[in-house]
C-alpha cells in the first residue's frame, strides 16, 4: 500500500519525471526501448483500438448477418470467413471486431468512471475535514466489504441486466481503490510547502486541490488506471458471460464466449477466440501498466 | 494483542451494518413493487394491497429495514418468490457446494503457489524466477471463465479425463465421484489466484532473506536447506497466511463464474437464476450471506495475523 511508504522523496521523483515535462523528449526512445515489453503492449493495444474504431469502414461482413447454411464453419478454410462463422453463420472476424468495440468501450468507460468518482472522493477525503474523511472512507470500506464481482452482480440484479447497467455496476465497485489511492497521495502532498504557500497567498480550497495537489498525484493514478483497465475489461466481460451485460443481438467478447459454450464439442473456435482476445488485451494492459509504473512511479512496485 | 482484536471487532460493526443497508436497499432500487412482482400480472389491486400490508411494505422504509434486519439476524431471510420456500435453507444448501469448490481451489493455489514462490525466491532473477513472474501475470490477465472452458475443451472433451459439468454423475455419487467432478473447476479457479500467492511468497521470502539473522545462520555454517526451512520460512509465512486468507474471500465471491462454466450447483448459480427470474428475496439473501462470510473471513485473517505476529498493533 502506498500509504505505508515514506513519501518524502517520491513526489519529487514523480513531479520531476512526469509532470514538469523536463527532459522527457530526448530519452523517450531510450525509455521505450528499455521497457520494450510495455512499448510493444502499448502498440498492440493502439492498433487494436484503431481496428475497432475503424470497424464501420473496414471491409468486413455485417456482424449480425445470419447465414444458417454456413453456420459453425471452422477457421482458416477457404470459406470466405477467415476465422469461421458462429452458430448463426455470422462472420467471426466481423463479430470479434464489433464485439471488441463494445468490450473495450465497456472496460475503458467503467475504469474512467471509477477513476473520476474515486479521485473526486479521494481529494475531498484527503483534503477535507476529519468528519468528511471518516464518512467517505467508511463508505468505501463498506463497498469493499463485498466481494468485487458479487456486488456488481447484485447491482445489476437491482438495476436490470444490460450493457449500461453492467458498466455502471463495475464502475461503482471500482471506486474505492481510486479513492483510497488518491486520499493517501493527497495526505502526503498537502503537507508540502508549495501547498502552504498557495494557501498563504489566499488561494481557495478548490484552486489548491485542482491546481496544486491534483497535478502532483497524477502519476500513480495513471499507473493504477492502466493496470485497472485490463481488470475492468475482464469484469465487464464476466457480467456479459453471465448474461447480465450486453443483451442480444449486441455482443461483446463475454457474451460471444457464453454463446460459444453451446458448440464447444464441434466448433471450439466460437468460444476460444473471444476469450483469447480478452486475455491478450488484459495481458497487454497489465504489461503496459507495469512498464508505466516503473517509469512514472517506482514506489508502487511490489 | 487483545486490545487490537477488540478494536478490529468493533470496527467491523459499522461495516456489517452498512452491508445490510446496501443489501436491503437493493430490493428498493429495483423498479416495480415487490408485492406486484410476487403475485404476477394477474393480481387484483385488492390482493396486492393485502400482500403489501402482510409484507410490511406500507411501513416507512426505516421501519421496514428494522423489521428485515431483526428477521435476518434470526436467520429468516424471507421466502423465495419462485420456489415458495424459505430462503435460508436454500442458500445454506447451495453454499456448501460453493464452499467445497472454493476450498479445493484455494488448496490448489496455495500448494502450488507457495511451492513456486519458494523455488523462485531461491534464485532471484533466474529463469525459473522469471517464469513464475510470467505465470503470475498470466493469472491476473486470465478470464477465469475462459480458462475453465479451455480446460473442459481439452481435458474433458478431447482427452475424456474428467466430466464436463456438474457435481456428481447421474448414476453414481459418493466421495470419489465428487472429487472427480471437482478437479477441473478447482484447478481452473485456483490458477487465477496462484500467481498472487506465488509472488507474495517470493517477495516475503526475499525480504526475510536480506536480514542479518539469515546471514548469521549462513555464517555459522547452517546448510542452505536448513536455513530455508528453519530460519527464512518461519519468518516469512505470516504475510503468506494473510494473502491466502484474503484469496479465500476473493475466490468465494468470484466462484459464480466457475460455477457457471462447470454448472457447479453452488450459491452463485442459484443467485444467477434468481436474478434472471427476478426472485429478489433469494438474490438478497444470497448476497447478504456471501458478503457476511466475506467480511468475517477478512476479520478472521486480521485477527489471525495479530495472533501469529505479536508485533502487530492497531495503528
CATH topology of the domain at 91-275 in chain B: MetI-like fold
* Overall CATH architecture of the domain at 102-302 in chain A: Orthogonal Bundle
Please count the helical segments of chain A: 12
Largest sheet report of chain B: none
Give the strand tally of chain A: 0
Name the helix and strand elements of chain B from N-terminus to C-terminus, one letter apiece: HHHHHHHHHHHH
* Biggest chain contact: A-B, 48 and 49 residues
Number of strands of chain B: 0
- Return residue spans of chain B where pLDDT drops below 50 for at least 5 consecutive residues: none
**CATH level 1 class label of the domain at 102-302 in chain A:** Mainly Alpha
Binned, the helix content of chain A reads 55-70%
Rg calculated over all Cα atoms of chain A: 22 Å
Describe the structure.
The complex is a heterodimer of chains A (302) and B (315). Chain A is mainly alpha-helical and 302 residues long. Chain A has a domain at 102-302: MetI-like fold (Orthogonal Bundle), CATH 1.10.3720.10. Chain A contains twelve helices and no strands. Chain A has helices at 10-19, 28-34, 36-53, 92-127, 130-144, 148-159, 163-189, 193-200, 205-213, 218-241, 253-260, 269-296. Chain B is mainly α and 315 residues long. Chain B has a domain at 91-275: MetI-like fold (Orthogonal Bundle). Helix content of chain B is 78%, strand content 0%. The chains are: A mainly alpha (302), B mainly alpha (315).
Keywords, separated by commas or semicolons:
heterodimer; A: 302 residues; MetI-like fold; elongated; B: 315 residues; mainly alpha; 0% strand; globular
Amino acid at each position: 500500500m502506498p500509504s505505508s511508504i515514506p513519501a518524502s522523496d517520491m513526489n519529487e521523483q514523480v513531479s520531476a519525471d512526469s509532470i514538469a515535462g523536463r527532459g522527457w523528449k530526448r530519452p523517450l526512445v531510450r525509455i521505450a526501448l528499455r521497457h520494450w515489453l510495455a512499448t510493444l503492449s502499448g502498440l498492440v493495444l493502439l492498433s487494436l483500438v484503431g481496428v475497432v474504431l475503424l470497424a464501420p469502414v473496414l471491409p468486413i461482413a455485417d456482424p449480425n448477418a445470419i447465414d444458417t447454411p454456413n453456420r459453425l464453419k471452422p477457421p482458416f478454410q477457404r470459406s470466405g470467413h477467415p476465422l469461421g462463422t458462429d452458430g448463426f453463420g455470422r462472420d467471426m472476424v466481423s463479430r470479434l471486431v464489433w464485439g471488441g468495440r463494445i468490450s473495450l468501450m465497456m472496460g475503458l468507460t467503467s475504469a474512467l468512471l471509477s477513476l473520476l468518482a474515486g479521485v473526486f472522493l479521494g481529494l475531498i477525503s484527503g483534503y477535507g475535514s476529519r468528519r468528511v474523511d471518516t464518512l467517505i472512507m467508511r463508505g468505501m470500506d463498506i463497498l469493499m466489504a463485498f466481494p468485487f464481482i458479487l456486488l456488481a452482480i447484485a447491482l445489476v440484479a437491482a438495476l436490470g441486466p444490460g450493457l449500461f447497467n453492467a458498466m455502471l455496476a463495475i464502475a461503482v465497485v471500482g471506486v474505492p481503490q481510486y479513492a483510497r489511492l488518491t486520499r493517501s497521495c493527497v495526505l502526503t502532498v498537502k503537507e508540502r510547502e508549495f501547498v502552504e504557500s498557495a494557501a498563504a497567498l489566499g488561494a481557495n480550497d478548490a484552486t489548491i486541490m485542482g491546481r496544486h495537489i491534483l497535478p502532483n498525484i497524477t502519476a500513480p493514478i495513471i499507473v493504477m488506471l492502466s493496470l485497472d483497465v485490463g481488470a475492468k475489461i475482464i469484469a465487464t466481460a464476466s457480467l456479459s458471460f453471465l448474461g447480465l451485460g450486453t443483451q442480444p443481438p449486441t455482443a461483446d467478447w463475454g457474451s460471444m464466449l457464453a454463446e460459444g459454450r453451446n458448440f464447444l464439442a464441434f466448433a471450439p473456435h466460437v468460444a476460444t477466440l473471444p476469450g483469447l482476445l480478452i486475455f491478450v488485451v488484459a495481458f497487454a494492459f497489465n504489461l503496459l501498466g507495469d512498464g508505466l509504473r516503473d517509469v512514472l512511479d517506482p514506489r508502487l512496485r511490489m | 494483542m487483545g486490545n487490537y482484536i477488540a478494536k478490529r471487532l468493533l470496527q467491523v460493526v459499522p461495516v456489517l451494518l452498512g452491508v445490510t443497508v446496501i443489501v436491503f436497499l437493493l430490493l428498493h432500487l429495483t423498479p416495480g413493487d415487490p408485492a406486484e412482482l410476487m403475485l404476477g400480472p394477474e393480481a387484483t389491486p385488492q390482493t396486492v394491497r393485502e400482500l403489501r400490508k402482510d409484507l410490511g411494505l406500507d411501513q416507512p422504509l426505516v421501519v421496514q429495514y428494522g423489521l428485515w434486519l431483526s428477521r435476518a439476524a434470526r436467520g429468516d431471510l424471507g421466502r423465495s418468490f419462485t420456489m415458495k420456500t424459505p430462503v435460508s435453507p436454500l442458500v445454506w444448501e447451495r453454499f456448501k457446494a460453493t464452499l467445497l469448490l472454493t476450498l479445493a481451489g484455494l488448496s490448489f493455489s496455495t500448494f502450488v503457489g507457495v511451492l513456486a514462490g519458494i523455488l523462485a525466491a531461491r534464485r532471484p532473477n533466474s529463469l525459473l524466477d522469471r517464469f513464475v513472474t510470467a505465470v503470475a501475470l498470466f493469472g491476473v490477465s486470465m478470464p477465469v471463465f475462459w480458462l475453465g472452458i479451455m480446460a473442459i475443451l481439452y481435458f474433458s472433451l478431447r482427452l475424456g479425463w474428467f466430466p464436463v459439468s456438474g457435481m456428481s454423475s447421474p448414476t453414481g455419487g459418493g466421495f470419489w465421484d465428487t472429487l472427480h467432478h471437482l478437479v477441473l473447476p478447482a484447478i481452473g479457479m485456483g490458477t487465477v489466484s496462484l500467481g498472487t500467492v506465488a509472488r507474495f511468497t517470493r517477495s516475503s521470502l526475499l525480504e526475510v532473506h536480506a536480514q542479518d539473522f539469515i546471514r548469521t545462520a549462513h555464517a555459522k555454517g547452517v546448510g542452505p536447506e536448513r536455513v530455508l526451512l528453519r530460519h527464512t520460512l518461519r519468518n516469512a509465512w505470516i504475510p503468506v497466511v494473510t494473502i491466502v486468507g484474503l484469496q479465500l474471500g476473493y475466490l468465494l465471491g468470484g466462484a459464480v463464474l466457475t460455477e457457471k462454466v462447470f454448472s457447479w450447483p453452488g450459491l452463485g448459480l442459484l443467485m444467477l437464476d434468481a436474478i434472471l427470474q427476478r426472485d429478489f428475496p433469494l438474490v438478497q439473501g444470497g448476497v447478504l450471506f456471501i458478503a457476511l462470510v466475506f467480511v468475517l473471513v477478512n476479520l478472521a485473517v486480521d485477527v489471525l495475523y495479530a495472533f501469529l505476529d505479536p508485533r502487530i498493533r492497531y495503528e
